[in-house]
Amino acid sequence: MTELEKGPQGRRRGRGARERILGASLQLFRDQGIHRTGMDQLCEVAQVSKRTAYQHFTTKDELVAEYLRRFDPDVMPGVFDRADLTPRERLLAAFEVPAAGSGDTPPMCPYIAAAVEIHDPDHPASRYARDYKRAVAVRFAGAAREAGATDPEGLGEQLALLLDGAAARTRVLDADAFPTAAAIAAVLVDAAIPRPAGDDAGPRADDPDRTAR
Length: 213
Fold this sequence. Notes:
Layout: H1 17-32, H2 39-46, H3 50-56, H4 60-71, H5 77-80, H6 87-93, H7 110-117, H8 124-147, H9 152-173, H10 178-192
Helix pairs in contact: 1-2, 1-4, 4-8, 6-8, 6-10, 7-8, 8-9, 9-10
């Protein structure tokens, strides 16, 4: 590293600084909250000067909004863009998250956490959190429509609400609520998708567990 790539006290600056700042925000905002994270600490972790930080993000509010955008810009593509799953399987795959049995308290959904911490509805992070949550319901509705649901928008809202509830309950109780949420989701999905004529009993054709029943 050349001297031109170093800032005060030998800290790196310039090249890659923006990504280091966002990486530090990802760690600190989730671990200790937005309000408890000051710019001095964030700059220390990112190894940049405050001047460099404010060259990339003119305000902390701007940084918070970008931090949220970086979490999941395509809205759960690992679930809803999977071509190897049927539409019904994609609806249920949203509830397949790693168990919280590591002993560490699972982090709260960053969008919910930001909305709780930031009381100003016009704050850019608050607006983005609302947009993201609406987008999740839209993604659910799209998969529900492909699966043949009679009311895809209604099912999308139900599943989005259930997903948020599971995340919040997991956080508060430090126990994995997603298996229970997945079971409820399966009931909602199957009730919303009409069976083909003459198929009034037995598991659905796209049910991966049908052979085990």
